[in-house]
Amino acid sequence: MKKLCILGSTGSIGKQALDVVRCLQGTEDAYSVSVLAANRDVAALEEQIRAFKVPMAVLFDEQAAADLRVRTADLSVRVLSGMEGLLEAVRGDADVVLNAVVGMVGLRPTLAAIEAGKTIALANKETLVVGGALVMQAAREKNVAIYPVDSEHSAIFQCLQGCPRKHDLSRLILTASGGPFFGKTRKELEQVTPEMALKHPNWSMGAKITIDSATMMNKGLEVMEASWLFGVPEDRIDVVVHRESVVHSLIEYNDNSVIAQLGVPDMRIPIQYALTYPKRFPSPVKRLNLAEFAKLTFFEPDEETFGCLPLCREAMRRGGLVPAAVNGANEAAVALFLQRKIPFLAIPELAREAAARQPDVQTFAVEDILEADARARALVASLA
Ligand code: MG
């Protein structure tokens, strides 16, 4: 049986991954869960440890980890904490590391897992946004596979299975739901509250990515993620708004033939495919009935109203630490918006300001990324 380490196990992706693990029991791709890591949700993690008989667990928060040790004193589970705990956990006993933490805090665990030769199932897009160059180089050097879990990237990865010659690929087309504010004007976005922004039309996700979806920062981050994952430059990655989230993304060949991947919006398909690639197994996900949808709609993204998308393209073109600055500012700004400390439209403004203040550099290391991230967060705190 293969062994799985899940970072972010109490979040939306983590819970659905455990559901996939349950469904794969009895198949030739059955997994045992060797490590679970979460931020601070003691009760949820304890339940998962008991249900899956997990030998090692990590809580990022030290106090929460101390609580978990008391609550699991009757078990033989080893409980670690902090970034050191996360890094030790990913180097431990696992074949596959599913990184589903929120934010660029996932960068160092991803790099540590690659260094330790683990196969990566990547749901943490910020890892590639801020550290794509370092991560992809480390993966090449260690001959480690990175399988996408993000639904659009899984769709492209699935489409690419029919592309034996890389040079025949001409572009990637990412679909975007458009979020809850599709069709709105900038004026209408001035009064947006966290409650309004947290109502995503199609996907049920964590708070940070749902806000990113409302600002369309998520799609900008995904353009960067796709560029690194598939080695395609930003100007050959299109974005099309597709309201129903049935077509998960597409690729175009040089003869203008387009291949798409479709399905009901349910993350358990991309999670399972990342864990069982190249094999497929039955899944609890509903079958797609196209007639139920009657029509699928597509629109150009409104880059005037949703400035995060062109900002991310600019960040990708400038390269260096600009993506880290944009991402760090966005993470900090989203947190402040959720606390009602800044308006919705301040999120793209703060991210743009962080990009403007970030000097261009050619070469950089992990420490430089962490510094650029910290500077961007400090800038947001000072301007908010
Ligand atoms: Mg996505």
Explain this structure to me?
The chain has 384 residues and is an alpha/beta fold. It folds into 2 domains: 2-148, Rossmann fold, CATH 3.40.50; 154-318, no CATH class. It is built from 17 helices and 12 strands. The protein has helices at 12-24, 42-52, 62-71, 82-91, 107-115, 125-142, 151-160, 186-189, 194-197, 207-215, 217-230, 268-276, 290-293, 308-318, 322-338, 346-357, 366-383, and strands spanning 2-7, 31-38, 56-59, 78-81, 96-99, 119-122, 146-148, 169-176, 237-242, 247-253, 258-262, 298-299. The protein has a 7-stranded parallel beta sheet with strand order 4-3-2-1-5-6-7, sandwiched between helices. Helix 2 (42-52) packs across helix 3 (62-71), helix 15 packs antiparallel against helix 16 (346-357) and helix 16 (346-357) packs across helix 17. The longest helix has 18 residues, at 125-142. The protein is globular and about 55 Å long. The N and C termini lie far apart (50 Å). The mean pLDDT is 97. Residues 150-152, 222 line the site of magnesium ion. Residues 150-152, 222 line the site of magnesium ion (MG).
